[in-house]
Here is the input.
Amino acid sequence: MPEPRTPLASFGRVKARHRFTVRPHLPAPLVPLDRLARNLRWSWDRPTRALFERVDPRAWAAYGDPLVVLQVAAPERLDAVAADPAFLADLAAVEADLDAYLGAPRWFQHRGESFRIGYFSPEFGISETLPQYSGGLGVLAGDHLKAASDLGVDIVGVGLFYTHGYFRQSLSVDGWQQERYPTLDPHAMALTLVRTGDDGAPPLHVTVDVGGRPVTLQVWRADVGRVPLYLLDANLEENDPDLRTITDRLYGGDTEHRLRQEIVLGVGGVRALRAVAEPVDVFHTNEGHAGFLGLERIRELVCGEGLSFDEAVAVTRAGGLFTTHTPVPAGIDRFPVELMERYFGSWCTTCGVPFEDLLALGRRPDEADDRFNMAVMGLRLAGASNGVSQLHGDVSRHMFAGLWPQVATHEVPIGSVTNGVHGPSWVSAEVDDLLRAEVAPDWSVAPAPAWDGILDVDPARVWATRRQGTERLVRFVRGRLRQAALAAGASPAEVAWTDDALDPDALTICFARRFATYKRATLLLSQPERLRRLLLEAPVPVQFVFAGKAHPADDEGKELIRRIVAFSHDLGVRHRFAFVDDYDIGVARMLYQGADVWLNTPRRPLEACGTSGEKAALNGALNCSVLDGWWAELYDGDNGWAVTSAPDVDDLVRRDAIEAESLFGLLEQQIVPLFADRDTAGLPRGWIDRMLRAWRSLGPQVTAQRMVRDYVERWYEPLARRSIALGRTGHAEARELVAWRHRVEHAWPTVRVELGEHPAEQLEGSASVTVDAAVTLAELDPTDVAVEVVHGRISPDGTIELPIVVEAEPVGVPDGGVQHYRASFRPGAAGHYGCTVRVLPRHPELDRHALPGLIVWA
Ligand SMILES: *Cc1c(COP(=O)(O)O)cnc(C)c1O
Here is the structure.
């Protein structure tokens, strides 16, 4: 019988019974290219990228993905490359370099302690070729893993593989965001299916109970330099159809869908780590989404190690770090009690934990909301917690102060590590060359003094470097505008204007990010005529490039995009004001490298950190931003511009108007004139000076290498030590710790403290003050408690404004259960002061505020 000619698919869908992957056939000398394409280090290693570009420059320009290049390159082309000795020599060198990168001891190995971190996040933005991210959190997680790899930190990433990733954006003719969800093929990406053994062995499966039904998960592994990233995937035939779609898309679906995704991430993630034999000492939970990992660890300890619930919580806490990434309560997941009961009732039975005790983990004593709050559980099950900038740390301490009743807000134990960005992933080749030459060959890990070198660089070279990025951006935007217009049905004649859109010499101002209302992308549109004058009548050409997506369910965000797009369609300004669609890592990188000014206008303090300005800064752009997130701590008056913030104005319309006025003022009176002021060689010397100062002050601070080192030194290492100590000898220390806690909790209601001898009411300037306190310890021992004198300036109502804490020392021995204490301090400059005293439980394995509620004040 002849073969049927008609494609069968036209009669309906034909279901494959078996799937297989055809890998491109590479000539033997090119086989190492496959290995280079599968380690995502290519995404930040220029020599590796250059190799793939040489294989097929057109395919590289079109796809920017090594695996696709190998797939689409013509066989003759591959044969030619395979016969080119110069190429093969470079290939050998790049492969040797990868081996050295993977094997050699790095910063972490020189520290001497060995432990492993499990980094859990609902999204990871490693490269635009692996679209498993929506924005800030994912890109940050990707940069965290890359920087950890560069530093040799022993870390493992855990996330989900979403069949559709996040959505692709296009615009309707009238500028309304349209979403598409193309199906991703993990087999065609730089992912390896984890198997139970060698190549032919069956895939490794992990099972998780989701509301009484088992879900089977397969696990994909991405190699991010030295760091493995495991992505869990429920899209398997053996799962019921509604369970297969648990990992369908990022941030889609209703509350129950989110709950199921988070069970797979948290519970499945811990099980996957066990299954692939990656034992972890510290679990780093990023945002509440991954929080169920804590419940899985408790279950393991209760069922596997025979610990009590309290002991299991103590052990889980010891090895847990919780990082909050949002400054708004609405950004936190909360699940109704009824859903928690349905999905965690069996967990309670298995662990012998009353359902009320589980609920208590996710509830705030000071709130009426009875839903289960993932951030609250995250904080309770972590031995340490942090926000992602200094300001966000402060905001978080206020936001969660209710969990630590009776302590001053600034003492709430939530610290901060300011986010950073992975330099080599974001800077252009020409900026990389400049920084290598003027700062250090490994500038992204260089200490601050190395950045002094940048001040001596030839201004003409700086300027030429900066313009190259803008030229590339202009070419890119022209291409994208053209493509988008043709796709929307315009004729080639109608899109001809895009050939001349934008100007490589103009002052280029970029704004790219998620279109959430608080980011106020449309602040400039509040005065359209003034904006028009800025674009068309300033002493130098001025142009804007915008990009960004709104969450599919966020109509307000979409409306902001529509307004930007409508303005960009205006015939009078469309050559100076562009919106680029389908924002992703690739588009973002183009903007960071092409901007003279990076604009950010959040409503302070709603930007937890923000990282896009950091990426632009590394490329030599100057930030013009509201003092929020990272910029609030790194702006020094001289390295960019600060838009006035008016947080005390409650009327948002008025507040926005004030801040827009400040922004226009900066643009018109400072930014444009500085850019326009040229020397005889045509160089804007004042501008270049500011660029150099910005590089020097920001360069060493904004890198993810600095961030990861901060995490290792402040949190990972101390937590790992504690977690390893508690795990020794069958968790003997954990059992003792919990027995101690029970003893202290039992005795606590009888603990009293009284202020003894008061300082005189009038004191001379530098006099020292001594305070005595009598503490009724009842059944406790002096070593069980810390007695602290709290002092400081007081306001008229008697409140100590910025309390300072000094530890008091025992005097003599207890007498009838009462122990005396004494502390001395010097109050400081003249003024009104006050003091008081308090008692807290003290244990060498616990932080001061680890047992909230157990505190007695005089
Ligand atoms: C850096 C980055 C972000 C985060 O930027 P913000 O400063 O938080 O707005 C989001 N998306 C992409 C693609 C990025 O590269």
Remarks:
- The CA atoms of residues 367 and 402 lie 8 Å apart.
- Residues 1-10 have pLDDT under 50 and may be disordered.
